[in-house]
């Protein structure tokens, strides 16, 4: 299995230059299949979050608890995929309209392109990579429209070994209450060292970025994705400093 070049892998995301954060959740709950379909209807890729269930299935959910979004007390990491599949989202219109999808459900729906953030710690990195490989094997061709992102470097390394044809993104997080003007350069250098060995792109928090870091990342051959835009001005700022793609909650101009 060969590894395509970075430009080909990331082109589905570079072309629009904007990714709908957790889908278009203006009408539907975040990370629901309906929110993803609405993003695709706008002509946009979307971002989703996945995490492991107790029985090693990848479930689409930002939080480990389903209480905030779905109104249920189930915890993804302590529940089976079958238990989670029975959950229905509660909305103002009543319950039963939405469900918590698995990654397999999402890929099977054929909606995309999709950035998949895998929320996993190092102690379950191999387990998560194995689950990702199994899901992709069940949906041949799905790799052409995804980029798999994570803060967890061991996960990305394992995925690279198993599926070098899948686009990978190292996430570089924000550290709140830090003096960014004094630490940005060292953090940017550390991020590129971390990303370049296992990934095709870096996904950085806005406060970590700037014209200098973006140039640094691009010289290292990485695609640059920034998160999370909340306004038209955030999007304009990200584009001005040279980001290839911006992950955004603001979709009103699309």
Structural summary, described in words:
This protein has helices spanning 6-14, 33-41, 67-70, 81-85, 103-109, 125-137, 153-162, 180-196, 211-219, 232-240, and strands at residues 18-21, 46-52, 58-60, 88-91, 94-99, 114-118, 146-150, 167-172, 201-205, 223-229, 245-248. The longest helix is centred in the last third of the chain and has 17 residues, at 180-196. It has an 8-stranded parallel beta barrel with strand order 1-2-6-7-8-9-10-11, surrounded by 6 helices. Strands 4-5 form a two-stranded antiparallel sheet. Helices cover 36% and strands 22% of the residues.
Topology:
Elements: H1 6-14, E1 18-21, H2 33-41, E2 46-52, E3 58-60, H3 67-70, H4 81-85, E4 88-91, E5 94-99, H5 103-109, E6 114-118, H6 125-137, E7 146-150, H7 153-162, E8 167-172, H8 180-196, E9 201-205, H9 211-219, E10 223-229, H10 232-240, E11 245-248
Parallel strand pairs: 1-2, 1-11, 2-6, 6-7, 7-8, 8-9, 9-10, 10-11
Antiparallel strand pairs: 2-3, 4-5
């Amino acid at each position: 299995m060969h590894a395509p070049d970075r430009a080909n892998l990331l082109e589905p995301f570079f072309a629009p230059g904007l990714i709908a954060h957790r889908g278009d959740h203006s009408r539907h709950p975040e990370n629901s299949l309906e929110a993803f379909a609405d993003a695709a209807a706008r002509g946009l890729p979307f971002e989703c979050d996945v995490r492991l269930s107790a029985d090693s299935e990848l479930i689409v959910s930002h939080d480990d608890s389903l209480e905030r979004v779905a109104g249920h007390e189930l915890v993804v990491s302590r529940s089976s995929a079958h238990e989670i599949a029975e959950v229905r989202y509660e909305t103002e219109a009543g319950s039963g309209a939405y469900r918590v999808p698995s990654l397999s459900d999402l890929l099977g729906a054929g909606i995309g392109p999709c950035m998949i953030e895998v929320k996993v710690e190092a102690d379950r990195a191999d387990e998560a990579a194995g689950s990702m490989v199994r899901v992709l094997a069940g949906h041949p061709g799905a790799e052409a429209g995804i980029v798999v992102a994570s803060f967890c470097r061991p996960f990305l390394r394992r995925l690279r070994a198993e599926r070098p044809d899948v686009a990978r993104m190292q996430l570089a997080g924000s550290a709140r209450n830090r003096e960014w003007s004094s630490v940005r350069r060292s953090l940017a250098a550390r991020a590129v060292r971390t990303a370049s060995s296992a990934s095709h792109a870096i996904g950085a928090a806005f406060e970590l970025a700037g014209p200098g870091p973006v140039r640094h990342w691009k010289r290292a051959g990485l695609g640059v994705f920034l998160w999370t835009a909340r306004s038209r001005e955030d999007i304009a700022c990200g584009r001005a400093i040279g980001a290839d793609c911006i992950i955004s909650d603001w979709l009103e101009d699309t």
